[in-house]
Write a structure and sequence with these properties.
Strand content: over 45%
Distance between the termini: 34 Å
Number of helices: 0
Helix content: under 10%
Number of strands: 11
Radius of gyration: 13 Å
Shape: globular
Length: 122
Amino acid sequence: VQLVESGGDSVQAGGTLRLSCVGSGFRTEYNCMGWFRQSAGKEREGVAVIYTGGGGNLHYADSVKGRFTVSQDDVEKTLYLQMNSLKAEDTAMYYCATRRYCTSISPAAFGNWGQGTQVTVS
C-alpha cells in the first residue's frame, strides 16, 4: 500500500487549496480513506473520512464542516480534499490514510499513511 499526498502550499486566510492523495497497491474504490492533520504540539486529528465504496459513510470534523469537501476519483485512484475559506488554525501537516473499513475513524485505527503535505495559512 502506498499513498502519496500533494497540493500543500502557503496561502492567505480566506484562500483555497485542493489536496490530492494517490493510492496504489490496494483497491482505492472500496476502502476507508481519510484526511488527517497534525500541527506543532498537537495530536493528529481526523479532518474527513469516507468509505469510498459508497453508502454515505462520510465524516467531517466540526471545525471544517461547510468549508472542506472530500471527493474521490476511482479512475485516477485519487482522494481529494477541497479546502475553502482557510483559516490560520488550519495550518498543519495533512496526511492521507487508509484502512479496509470505517469501523473506526480514529487516527490510531489507520495503519497505512502517506508522507504528508504541508498547509500554511497566514
